[in-house]
Specification:
It contains no helices and eleven strands. The strands form two sheets. Strands 2, 4, 5, 6, 9, 10 and 11 form a seven-stranded mixed β-sheet that branches. Strands 1-3-8-7 form a four-stranded antiparallel β-sheet, with no helix packed on it. β4 and β5 form a beta hairpin. With about 120 residues, it is mainly β.
């Protein structure tokens, strides 16, 4: 069964940076839109960023624009989330997701999910 495996989470101080990675087990995902969601304690999971299979026109939630960059390496079926200027409100479990449908990324369900990686930003 196709899998998505996240890595790169951890504990950082406010203003720090992290790079999350999501590796897909199936080469089919190189043709899929892929994205990142996060869930803070006591809150619903929210969209963070996503990118189409050709790597153009990434989309971000307003709160991370200018601080996070999503990218993908289709040769290695991996996506990344580069996060800088981290804030305590960025704390949460970050999930990788994939689907065959493209944008708009906040509409329509995502079909595949990873198990998540914890990001904690201390104040």
């Amino acid at each position: 069964q196709a899998q998505l495996v996240e890595s790169g989470g951890g504990l950082v101080q406010t203003g720090g940076s992290l790079r999350l990675s999501c590796a897909a087990s199936d080469r089919t995902f190189s043709m899929y839109a892929m994205g990142w969601f996060r869930q803070a304690p006591g809150k619903e999971r929210e969209f963070v960023a996503a990118i189409d299979w050709w790597g153009l026109k990434p989309s971000y939630v307003d709160s991370v624009k200018g601080r996070f960059i999503i990218s993908r390496d289709n040769a290695n079926i991996t996506i990344f989330l580069h996060m800088i200027s981290l804030k305590p409100e960025d704390t949460g479990v970050y999930y990788c997701a994939a689907r065959s449908r493209g944008a708009p990324f906040t509409e329509y369900p995502w079909d595949y999910w990873g198990q998540g990686t914890q990001v904690t930003v201390s104040s």
